[in-house]
Amino acid sequence: MRCSKKSQFSIEYLLTIVVVISLFIPVLLFAYYSAMEKTQGVEKKQLETLGNFFLKNIEKVYSAGVPSRITAQQRVPLPLKNITEGGFKDHDVVLVLDNNQNFSFSSSYPLEIHLNRTLGEGIITVRFDAVYNETGPNKEQIVNITVLD
Description:
Elements: H1 2-64, E1 69-76, E2 80-86, E3 92-97, E4 102-106, E5 111-114, E6 122-132, E7 141-148
Parallel strand pairs: 5-7
Antiparallel strand pairs: 1-6, 2-3, 3-4, 6-7
């Protein structure tokens, strides 16, 4: 009889633990996924800030005309594999993340981007130059963007 009371207590204890765990696991999963969504939202906003930094300076330099130049600094929120031009007429600034996900920001101005390395998180210095395109059939104005070391 003594053994059955111990086993009954053990089973009740085990059932209590199972019930408590089964209640907390969904709550923990919900909290985890909510935190992940918020983190991704913050990262997306930070990338939008970086993209808008490029667009704003491209417009300023292009509007001022040749030989204007702006050198500016901006924070890179995530490691980037590349920053390149692309899209329709190659007028978009394309941020390529390490996982090959692209974020594109449309510019109305012709541009060329020079980046010879991947970028880690931190502050970058970028030079925007209004120059004439020497390679095309006609000398059109473009914005030459160089990410400095």
